[in-house]
Design goal:
alpha/beta
Length: 218
């Protein structure tokens, strides 16, 4: 098993253990868009479990060192990526900041918080990649400010086609600690879901708008 595969499996086990990623294929959640989902994701929970937090932050630091060795500044996404960017910045002795969802309506009306010089090489720290829209908004803000965005380091990605296509079109590299394929395989192997449910979960990931996976119809 490669170092990357070991990392993916370790983080998958961590996220499942603390229910940061939680599967409920027979009682789906409903997203704000109205799409029914068999998975709930809240990677903020990684911050409240010390052992899991250590695994996640050390793994993010490892990814940044391996894939983005030229990085000069870390920028977290608001709000979920802020704490992770701060901790990883501390581990790597790098400056960090974060990008707001919109510019402030008072003071200096900043959207980028923290010092960022034009031309600096930036890595964005994100907790979750689904369709890619929110992280690409952050990338756009940083690029408009003159930063050279080397890429993204994230905790988890669904690997949805829409997200992959958007990132590729924007020329943005993303390296996630683990992904939907790995976490569903671990969940089936360790009894979090029935082995037969994995195909239903992957069917959801491949086409979230197609609800035939509900009730075992995938």
């Amino acid at each position: 098993m490669t170092n990357e595969s070991m990392r993916e499996e370790t983080i998958a086990k961590d996220l499942l253990k603390i229910k940061a990623v939680f599967f409920r294929p027979d009682e789906p959640f409903t997203w704000a868009s109205g799409i029914k989902s068999p998975v709930y994701t809240d990677n903020r929970l990684t911050l409240t479990d010390v052992a899991v937090r250590d695994d996640v932050e050390n793994a993010l630091a490892e990814v940044v060192r391996e894939h983005y060795p030229e990085v000069e500044v870390l920028m977290g996404t608001s709000t979920a990526g802020i704490a992770h960017a701060a901790i990883v910045g501390h581990l790597l002795r790098l400056p960090m900041g974060y990008v707001r969802g919109g510019a402030k309506d008072h003071g200096r009306k900043n959207q980028i918080e923290g010092r960022l010089q034009p031309g600096q090489k930036v890595v964005v720290i994100e907790d979750l990649i689904s369709t890619g829209g929110s992280v690409l908004e952050v990338v756009d803000v940083l690029r408009e400010a003159g930063a050279e965005v080397l890429g993204v380091a994230s905790i988890f990605t669904y690997g949805m086609e829409k997200g992959r296509a958007r990132l590729q079109e924007a020329g943005v590299k993303n390296v996630s600690l683990t992904n939907f394929d790995v976490i569903t395989a671990v969940a089936a192997a360790e009894g979090y879901i029935a082995p037969t449910d994995r195909a239903r979960l992957l069917a959801f990931r491949d086409n979230p708008a197609d609800e035939r996976w509900i009730g075992g119809k995938a």
